[in-house]
Amino acid sequence: MITLTVNGLHVSVEKGTTLLEAASFLGFPIPTLCHMEGLSPYGACRLCVVEIGEGPGAKLVSSCTYPAENGLKVRTASERVVRTRKMIIELFLASCPQSKEIQDLASAHGVRQQRFRQEHEDCILCGRCVRICKEQMMAGAIGFQGRGEMRSIGTPFGAKSEVCRFCGGCIYVCPACQLRCTYNEPEKAVCGGCANLAPPCLNNEKFHDMMCYMNPCVACEISK
Known about the structure:
By secondary structure, this protein is an alpha+beta fold. Helices cover 24% and strands 12% of the residues. The protein has two domains: 2-117 and 184-214, Ubiquitin-like (UB roll), CATH 3.10.20; 128-173, no CATH class. It has helices at 19-26, 79-95, 100-108, 128-136, 169-173, 218-223, and strands at residues 2-6, 9-13, 49-52, 59-62, 73-75, 143-145, 152-154.
């Protein structure tokens, strides 16, 4: 068994358990986008970042792919983690502002602006479609092509696939192809229609190392 500390709580997990699984076992919510039950961990979106270690040596890692280690100290909602997640959500909004899943993430994490160049490319390269086609549908009809900014998803050589069964699994799991958020000002990346007021407790300096991770927030529920 592996023993580690998550948000100050000690937990023992089996070898091979990821930090995401360990945190979920304790009830600490960690947002994910490329991760999906039944599919292999991919670590593409980085939305599930957590902070490990202490002091200057602390670093951010993707919890869905990082294995639990003995003595590891993990923080799932430190100020650094929350700030990083918000920036990642802004990047997703730049590529796919009409994805309801991404808009819901923006609302849930208090993202009120998008500071990057608006591209409306839709595909965020989360790899859900590629993995479900290969791992669940046993087809492998689509895959990644190119590198860097030229990276995309398609069939080999762009030709019609002979193994695609038109099952629709790729569309079913795609955050860009699922529910679309249609708002009145399409030139703006942040819809804000489902946004809640920011919890006042996050402005308290004592939450510098561990910000609010309760869902729903007890203080916010009481103040309603």
